[in-house]
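Chain A, query sequence.
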Amino acid sequence: MIILSIESSCDETAMAIVEDGRKILSNTVYTQIAIHTMYGGVVPEVASREHIKKITYVLDDALKQANLTLDDIDAVAVTKEPGLIGSLMVGVNTAKTISLCFNKPLIYVNHIHGHIYANYLEEDFSFPLLALVVSGGHTELVLMKDHMDFEILGETLDDAVGEAYDKVARVVNVGYPGGPIIDKMASLGTPTYPLPHIKLSKDSLDFSFSGLKSAVINLCHNANQRGETIDANNLAASFQNAVIDVLVSKTSKAATMYNVKQVIIAGGVAANKGLRSAMQEEMDKIGIKLTVPQFKYCTDNAAMIAAAAYNQYIKENNN
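Chain A, predicted structure.
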């Protein structure tokens, strides 16, 4: 089954052609990072216009890479939610047009399911599994007992972890997107600043990052008032140490509680080298298999949407 998939939920215009949910025939991504960097974050109206400008070119490139035509496609998949409304509409309308004109089935995919299934591009899932979803808009622990079976065990009560990274990067004035920059700075620093590791109640699998973010803002503000210089690398290391400690400890707790066979990390923050290293060390300690996507499949892409769409289509049509 050959699926043409479209992802346009935020600031990447992406299309992929994937066979049987795993064999990638093409994977094209046009990123708008350079455009939004000047604003310090994604501007929804600008993102929508850029999608409109580029989506036909991305389609042409995806077909050319795969050496296929739209007649060769068996189905069309597209991200329907969550995301920026204007950006999503560009992808959905494109998918609807292709589906109608070429008489192909249309598969709507949840963006978060796509991030989880980025791991399926790497290897099979071993159920039950636990997914740690970490991105700019989401932080969740999701239990899966079968394909396309999702149970949220815990989620953020306020800021998502990726959002916290971007805000901290803005506070220390190091640029956008904040996640990769803070991760690199953390590797050069030492966690010398006392920042809170917020784990909520003993049994909670929920997350909270607003207090940590506020602690960083207050620390920088107070240092500025006293005329003191903040060591940016040490602050980044302190912040990242607090974040990773919470993410790893809660993931480990949930994995043990639900006796899972596999833990996967999904979402843009899955590219964080500090998190990948710390999670691998913890999973080795408790004897649970860890799967993390290649860096190119951590951020928004359409191959992950095709992987989710394939499994969703198979499950829906076998029931």
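The beta strands are 2-7, 12-19, 23-31, 75-81, 106-110, 129-134, 139-144, 151-155, 262-266, 289-291. The mean pLDDT is 96.
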